[in-house]
Queue: 2 jobs
Job 1
Amino acid sequence: MGHVGLRWGWGCCVPNPLLLLSLLLSAAPFGLLGEETRQVSLEVIADGLDSPKNLLHIRAVGDNSTLHYVWSSLGPPAVLLVATNTPHSALNVSWSRLLSPEPDGGLEVLPKESIQFSSALIFTRLFEFDSANTSDAAAKPPGKPYPPYSLTEFSWNNITDSLDPATLSATFRGQPMHDPNRAFANGSLAFRVQAYSRSGRPAQPPRLLHTADTCQLEVVLAGASPRGNHSVFGLEVATMGQGPDCPSMQEQHSIDDEYAPAVFQLNQLLWGSLPSGFMQWRPVAFSQKQGSRESALSCQASPLHPTLEYPLPQSPIVRAFFGSQSNFCAFNLTFGASMGPGYWDHHYLSWSMLLGMGPPPVDALSPLVLGIMAVALGAPGLMLLTGGLVLLRHKWHSEYQSIS
Ligand SMILES: *[C@@H]1O[C@H](CO)[C@@H](O)[C@H](O)[C@H]1NC(C)=O
Ligand SMILES: *[C@@H]1O[C@H](CO)[C@@H](O)[C@H](O)[C@H]1NC(C)=O
Ligand SMILES: *[C@@H]1O[C@H](CO)[C@@H](O)[C@H](O)[C@H]1NC(C)=O
Ligand SMILES: *[C@@H]1O[C@H](CO)[C@@H](O)[C@H](O)[C@H]1NC(C)=O
Ligand SMILES: *[C@@H]1O[C@H](CO)[C@@H](O)[C@H](O)[C@H]1NC(C)=O
Ligand SMILES: *[C@@H]1O[C@H](CO)[C@@H](O)[C@H](O)[C@H]1NC(C)=O
């Protein structure tokens, strides 16, 4: 576990027909459900004070439900996820409470009875490791740790300036408040948030399939001076536990697909049984803006642990919504290893994930892979089975053509 083989290659293997069959079967229902759309709005909620206290509310309204994503850089960067079963639920913010030492009740989604699911993610620390003397690519940690950057001690841009209602996106860009070595003099850590009103797939790898129920987060470290020649970076992520347990982490395997060549895995964090929330990502990061095979790094996730043993930086928005509950769980993501491409190549690192509520999107197979399978299996039975997919091919085909 843990080690991701980044074997880039198009001369695709055709494994066990049973696996292919089960992939086909699991791929079919998603497409047949069709695409749901939502009315998505992004709003920056201002506090009327001088320094920006970024609070971004993404409201995604469907026929019978509303999803609320509340992103903030108050304290460590964090997001609240709240799903309600009415198209009329609303976010209520009390800034005086939110900014007080006891923010409980400062954020509410009303009516309270409509809430079907709620949770949160908090991005607490940026790690940097010196992997120079680490020859084992799967070593954990990937080298000698430098002192971590606490994201609570970052200052962030005014989110209003990056808000783009046309693309439903906004970017939190930050630097350490105290940066004695001027490591971030020309650099920043950015959290680019993107909402969607319908399903689709972005042009940039890893091309995660999204739906109107999801948001994408892209984390980009760019231009910061590393503290060594072989710095590997990592990110600590905390979330709410479910009673005494931590949310579950899943690894799904898929065959080599053109949407994410040679990344055979989809990682998922599930907060509970459905309807629930999820975080979904491919275990890959990129060392260049134009993500490609050459710039792909593996991304490793540690297991989730309860954080009772060590203090977690407080997120005012999480406290404001959930009160002073304390069962948090955390895990680490590390990007790259001592070998292969790394941050050192271009002083650039990007990693993306989806955050959503409801059933997680299930990756359908691309036309190329379907074609390979049809040739490889050639069985009339398979053709019958895929008959139902023919209607969908049209859509996939046009999507495929828009790639290159
Ligand atoms: C943030 O930027 C917007 C638009 O440029 C501006 O109206 C607002 O006053 C700024 N907020 C702060 C606190 O500087
Ligand atoms: C919304 O609710 C109505 C009435 O309960 C139902 O008929 C309809 O199918 C629901 N729509 C969706 C998209 O779930
Ligand atoms: C790595 O190895 C070199 C040579 O053996 C040594 O000089 C250096 O201090 C080591 N660096 C770390 C971080 O251990
Ligand atoms: C930042 O960039 C400027 C101009 O490109 C350069 O002169 C300066 O040395 C850089 N500073 C750091 C700390 O990298
Ligand atoms: C980085 O590499 C350069 C050239 O290879 C070397 O001179 C320098 O000492 C290295 N720095 C560190 C911190 O290892
Ligand atoms: C993440 O990694 C850091 C540095 O190796 C370690 O101190 C911390 O305990 C790890 N956190 C989790 C949740 O594994």
Job 2
Amino acid sequence: MLCAPRRRLGAPVAPAAALAAALLSSLARCALLESGDPAALALSPYFGTKTRYEDVNPGLLPDPEAPRRDPELLAGPCTPVQLVAIIRHGTRYPTAKQIRKLRQLHGLLQARRPGGGEPTGGRDTGAALAHRPLWYADWMDGQLVEKGRQDMRQLAQRLAALFPGLFRREDFGRLQLLTSSKHRCVDSGAAFLQGLWQHHHPGLPPPDVADMECGPPRINDKLMRFFDHCKKFLTDVEKNATALYHVEAFKTGPEMQDIIKKVAATLEVPANDLNADLIQVAFFTCSFDLAIKGIQSPWCDVFDVNDAKVLEYLNDLKQYWKRGYGYAINSQSSCILFEYIFQHLDKAIEQKQRSQPVSSPVILQFGHAETLLPLLSLMGYFKDREPLTAFNYKQQMHRKFRSGHIVPYASNLIFLLYHCKNAKTPEEEFQVQMLLNEKVLPFAHSQKNVSSYEDLKNHYEDTLTGCRANHDCDSPKANSTFDEL
Ligand SMILES: *[C@@H]1O[C@H](CO)[C@@H](O)[C@H](O)[C@H]1NC(C)=O
Ligand SMILES: *[C@@H]1O[C@H](CO)[C@@H](O)[C@H](O)[C@H]1NC(C)=O
Ligand SMILES: *[C@@H]1O[C@H](CO)[C@@H](O)[C@H](O)[C@H]1NC(C)=O
């Protein structure tokens, strides 16, 4: 099934070369799977935010459309009444900035004059890379790839099969979809809807998203790109040259310097011409070639597992200081989204208590790794005792904050609200479970796999009230934010 070239669904008009590449890519994927070469995947656990979803959820590989039910999901007297999902876009192309850096590195390789002596490892990796044409072009700039659409369609099909009571065909018109304005997110939302449609109408081509009952996802950057709208975050972190001090220090620290020297020797280019950014883009290219084309890229040959661990740390350091626990404002800026989720849960509970149907059983919100990490940090997840710094790489080998395990492509955080019949106390009537990447995520406050809604809300009361006051972001239109929803 993986090997059958897929028809492109609702994709923008694709250049013939891209179509050919997609075909080649599915062939390559077959070759890869059939060869079963474990070396092809040796580096993939360290790809950070460029990790494939199936590397975090290996059970999906045999049949990505089959629902997999976490045994910890509530059943019996408790029925799901609402699902709120925050979903990262699927697999994407490199950004224009990454492509520019890759071209710079490629140029270095083409210009090099290998000195005498045996090339390291007996083969000339530098020459192989210099002669290999770069297949990345500027138009790709961070867009969703076909594999990314597939990530979304398959996620939709699994969720719909897992929660049939929420994703009923007759409720299609009640789906609520929000998205970040970025193309890859808008397109992810559309692909997700097409997957849902296919679940209900197997074998029929899905209509254009604009013609679906629920309509296309609505753009809302205040919620899905809150980081662009929080003044304090922008001044203290985003536009602050010293906020990412540890990232910069690690780039010039001993671990990275060792890799730079080693790579310079392997590629036979002067070490002075290389820097951490160029090394990182070579590593990214290894990950992009695997995620997008399903091939083991020759760029992977430049690195071993120890290098990969260092480069993963570099990626995590940036996420930590810009999106995670590094600065309180990183996570605080997401409270507007957190509050929005609780407004939906509150409303559903109110409707159930009045024996009314829940008006929005399913809310789907498409965003970024940068949307999910602050939200998870706000809730207290994946917090290490010590901060990640430029100087404690070794001590942090077993850190919790590993973005590749948390926010791979198509990662998803789901709040699942249950109504439980025969509850002994009113408190037990509404229960909540959280799922991260389709696995039950124990609550940060109790380590339990389920929480009463009351407990959950009590635990986060300060966060929610603090958010309402909205001193942190000092956003001038803070009060009117919800008017446009
Ligand atoms: C920039 O970040 C540094 C390090 O956190 C901090 O000391 C400084 O106050 C910040 N500058 C601004 C303008 O927020
Ligand atoms: C929660 O679920 C995990 C499996 O996902 C299980 O190992 C663990 O024991 C559960 N925890 C509790 C407190 O039930
Ligand atoms: C926003 O809310 C604050 C406090 O709740 C209030 O003082 C302020 O007048 C409001 N601003 C607008 C424009 O409504």
